[in-house]
Design goal:
The protein is of the alpha+beta class. It has a single domain, classed as NADH Oxidase (3-Layer(aba) Sandwich). The protein has helices spanning 3-9, 23-33, 53-75, 91-95, 142-154, 169-176, 205-208, and strands at residues 45-49, 112-119, 158-162, 182-191. A four-stranded antiparallel beta sheet has the order 1-2-4-3, with helices on both faces. The chain starts with a helix and ends in a 14-residue tail after the last helix. Bound molecules: flavin mononucleotide. Residues 11-12, 14, 102-104, 160-164, 200-201 line the site of flavin mononucleotide (FMN). Flavin mononucleotide binds next to strand 3.
Length: 222
């Protein structure tokens, strides 16, 4: 596919047909995704492909309480788990919320489940002393994660990036033997999508750009 076509058609595919994705295809996807940039070109990623159904079930169970909480907060109009505003949703409401969710609520269904970790010893975090949640370390892993999804799209597959599992990171790390100095960055599902792409809804360039000042004039074409 042409680069701009891949970029504008890589949607979040969350449910998949039963058609398997071969290890060869997965290898090819990762063989292209690995050209992603990272700080100092240190490439601190590791990818664990979760094939074992028992492991999938255990990861699923770990995520269930977080999925329920996320859904309850979203239904209350909050941005779930944001770092600035505490949730007002009570535990009873969370308990009464269903854990149904495509992919993240149904790992068994995905032909490929990947857990991507990053070696924190290899990641520069210039924002670590600031009084806010860190975003800079993500810059050394999410280009790689997104490359996986772009490559999957190029293979006529689809996929989705999820992060629920990080909320139970210590238990997930114990389950998968992930060392202390690695963080879980993403869990990705990949397969043949059951539904095809509808047009992606994204904000216009003029809506998120500014010249010289945060509130400056937007960047328009021409
Ligand atoms: C950090 C991050 C976490 C996400 N987590 C989930 C998730 O847990 N479950 C899910 O179905 N989609 C998840 N997504 C996918 C987004 O919902 C999706 O990219 C967005 O809604 C745009 O979808 P579209 O490309 O189909 O328009 C996540 C995306 C990002 C970037």
């Amino acid at each position: 596919m042409e680069t701009y076509d891949v970029m504008t058609t890589t949607f979040a595919a969350r449910s998949f047909t039963s058609k398997p994705v071969s290890r060869d295809t997965l290898h090819r996807i990762l063989d292209h995704a690995r050209f992603a940039p990272s700080g100092g070109n240190r490439q601190g990623w590791r990818v664990i492909s979760i094939e074992n159904s028992d492991l999938r079930e255990k990861l699923q169970n770990l995520m269930t309480p977080t999925i329920k909480a996320y859904k309850a907060m979203a239904m209350a109009g909050e941005t779930p788990f944001n770092s600035l505003e505490a949730s007002l949703v009570d535990q009873a409401t969370i308990d009464a919320t269903s854990s149904e969710m495509p992919f993240a609520g149904n790992l068994a269904q995905a032909p490929v489940v990947l857990v991507v970790t990053v070696d924190l010893k290899k990641v520069t975090a210039f924002d670590q002393d600031l009084d806010r949640v860190g975003v800079i370390p993500g810059a050394s892993i999410y280009p790689f994660v997104w490359n996986i999804l772009l490559a999957a799209r190029n293979e006529n597959l689809g996929g989705v990036l999820t992060t629920f599992i990080a909320h139970q990171e210590p238990r997930a790390k114990a389950l998968l033997g992930i060392p202390d100095h690695h963080a879980i960055a993403a869990m990705i599902g990949i397969g043949e999508p059951t539904q095809q792409l509808t047009k992606l809804k994204r904000r216009a360039v003029s809506d998120f750009t500014a010249i010289d000042h945060f509130q400056g004039e937007p960047l328009n074409s021409g």
